[in-house]
Design a protein that fits this description.
177 residues; alpha/beta; 4-stranded mixed beta sheet; 5 helices
Length: 177
């Protein structure tokens, strides 16, 4: 699928129809994160707060960029994933109150770190397996409903055959008498 402005995400996951494709884009605002870590190590509260705000602003900017570039239903899903390269950066993003939720609700972007990306991908896989099972369950239910109808017809035919056999037995008994 060609995305708006002929853009390409770092990774596009093909999901079963009718879902589409989900973009996973890696962002490396390492310089913002490194300034934060250095300020925290020095115990410089002012620089730490400034670096945290800069990193949050950069993450929001990247999420907005991902939304504009890679979320294009029906060619793609209505959500995307922003991958950050380190667990520390991921933890700092999560530490900012409400940021994770805001990125999901406003930009339809989920943040993932090195550990969580595997969990996110596994949950997508499990979700679509469940969807496939649900669809197959519906097909099995239709088949069983059809079989139930056929068994009903078979039961009616057996009852008619039994009545004919009883009638034939009475006729034979009557003739033998």
């Amino acid at each position: 699928a060609v995305l708006p402005n002929n853009t390409r995400a770092d990774c596009m996951l093909n999901l079963p129809p009718p879902t589409g494709r989900v973009a996973v884009d890696a962002k490396f605002p390492l310089e913002d994160y490194q300034r934060l870590v250095v300020a925290q190590e020095k115990g410089d509260l002012v620089a730490s707060n400034s670096a945290q705000k800069a990193m949050v602003a950069r993450v929001k900017l990247e999420a907005k960029s991902i939304k504009n570039k890679y979320i294009a239903p029906p060619k793609t899903t209505d959500f995307a994933v922003l991958y950050v390269p380190t667990e520390g950066m991921f933890a700092e993003i999560l530490r900012e109150p409400g940021l994770f939720e805001m990125l999901q609700s406003e930009y339809r972007v989920t943040i993932a770190g090195p550990t969580t990306i595997a969990a996110i991908l596994s949950s997508y896989q499990l979700g679509f397996r469940t969807l496939a099972i649900a669809e197959q369950t519906g097909q099995v239910w239709e088949l069983l409903t059809g079989i139930k109808g056929e068994f009903g017809k078979f039961g009616d035919m057996l009852e008619k055959t039994r009545e004919k056999l009883v009638q034939a037995t009475k006729t034979i008994d009557s003739a033998s008498t």
